[in-house]
Amino acid sequence: MKAKPDCIVCVFRQALDSVKHATKSKKKHLMVMRKTARWIANASLNRTPANLSRKLYQIVYHVTAVKDPYRKIKETSNKVAMQILPTMEKKVQKSKDPLKSALKLAAGGNIIDMGVGVKFNITKDIPTIFNYKFAIDDTERLRKELKPGKKILYLGDNAGEIVFDIPLIKEFIRKGVKVVFAVKSGPIINDATIADARVAGLTKITTVIETGSNDIGIGWDKVSKQFLNEVKTADIIISKGHGNYETCDERPENFYFLLKCKCHIVAESLHINVGDIVFAHKTRLHK
Predict the structure, then answer these.
(1) DSSP string for residues in 213-225
(2) CATH class for the domain made up of 75-284
(3) Which of 156, 245, 244, 242 is nearest to 198 (CA)?
(4) Are 62 and 36 in contact (CB under 8 A)?
(5) What is the pLDDT of residue 157?
(6) C-alpha dihedral sign at 100, 200, 275, 265
(7) Quick one: which of 94, 160, 267, 276 could link to 112 by a disulfide (CB 3.0–4.6 Å)?
(8) pLDDT at residue 284 in the model
(9) Is residue 186 exposed (0-12), middle (13-18) or buried (19+ Cβ within 10 Å)?
(10) How far is CA 262 from its chain centroid?
(11) Rounded distance, CA 136 to CA 241, Å?
(12) Count of Cβ atoms closer than 10 Å to residue 81 Cβ
């Protein structure tokens, strides 16, 4: 997926949001915005929106020396998500179709995204997700692929959000499918790291690896050999969220994209509406 001129506006918003979380210094706020403006003036849009945004977070770090501006938000998101997870798990287990319900819950968790500038309330927003219908729904296609002995590589997204991936991962494991869960190798926005995976309890139920980089989505030129090997040997890859969709939509592997659409550029790419939830196999894309 390629960036559009609209993404430039989003870059400025992300820059201001990020530096405000890093410091209260108005001087540094202005410095970040000016540096971002100088860089974006000549930046090529022949790249993914995720890749376009990456530079601004480097600018924020160089100006403020704050490596993880969203650390407190990530900690709070993990805590609140874990508080309501037991109730959400019960709803999944008692539903007529636990697999689809678990997919919906995982998609609902994708509201916990500091990169898109959409406000969210975990305790109020997540329970409503079971009332949604997928705008694109490839659950039945996935169901046919879930055979004992198969392996899923699950590309995790944000802290807090990964808590709501747990019931889906458990569904896969119950069906005899091996799951490898991937997180970032360092902080970027509110994306999950190995520390978040431990807090969420993911490391207790499945194998968790790092991608090898802290790019938004997947920086395919920077990932580790271990990650690439997991990509190569996976029968199915579940890609969570906007950044992973933006950087994986043209990949040749057997990808399924699971997200809640929060941006009109992503909505146009998927031919859906902002606010929709999607579980789409790669063959549904770019038609």
Answers:
(1) S--SS--TTT--H
(2) alpha beta
(3) 156
(4) no
(5) 97
(6) negative
(7) 160
(8) 84
(9) middle
(10) 12
(11) 15
(12) 25
3-class SS letters over 154-165:
EECCECCHHHHH
The token duo for 72 is 């407190």
Q: 134 and 104 in contact (C-beta within 8 Å)?
A: yes
Q: What is the pLDDT of residue 286?
A: 63
Token pair 């879930």 in the structure block, residue? 146
Tell me the domain boundaries of the chain.
Answer: 6-64, 75-284
DSSP code of residue 170:
H
Q: Is residue 274 left, alpha or beta, with left meaning phi > 0 and alpha meaning psi from -120 to 50?
A: beta
Confidence (pLDDT) at 116: 87
Distance of CA 102 to the CA centre of its chain: 16
The H or E element spanning position 256 is: strand 255-260
Q: How many CA atoms lie within 13 A of 71 on its CB side?
A: 9
Which residues, 6 or more positions from 254, have their beta carbon under 8 angstroms from its beta carbon? Answer: 145, 234, 235, 236, 237, 282
Closest CA to 134 of 279, 283, 271, 282: 279
Alpha helix ranges (H) inside the chain: 6-22, 26-40, 49-64, 71-94, 98-108, 122-125, 139-145, 166-174, 194-200, 202-205, 225-233, 241-248, 264-270
Q: Rounded to whole angstroms, how far apart are CA atoms 113 and 191?
A: 8
Which of 229, 238, 130 has its CA nearest to residue 177? 238
Q: The tokens of 283 are what?
A: 């063959």
Residues of the chain short of pLDDT 70, as ranges, are 286-287
Alpha-carbon distances, residue 85 vs 90, 106, 109, 120, 259 (angstroms): 9, 11, 11, 17, 18
Residue with tokens 């091996």: 178
| Tokens coding 259 | 């997200």
Residue 285 is predicted with a pLDDT of 80
Under 8 Å between Cβ of 182 and 214: no
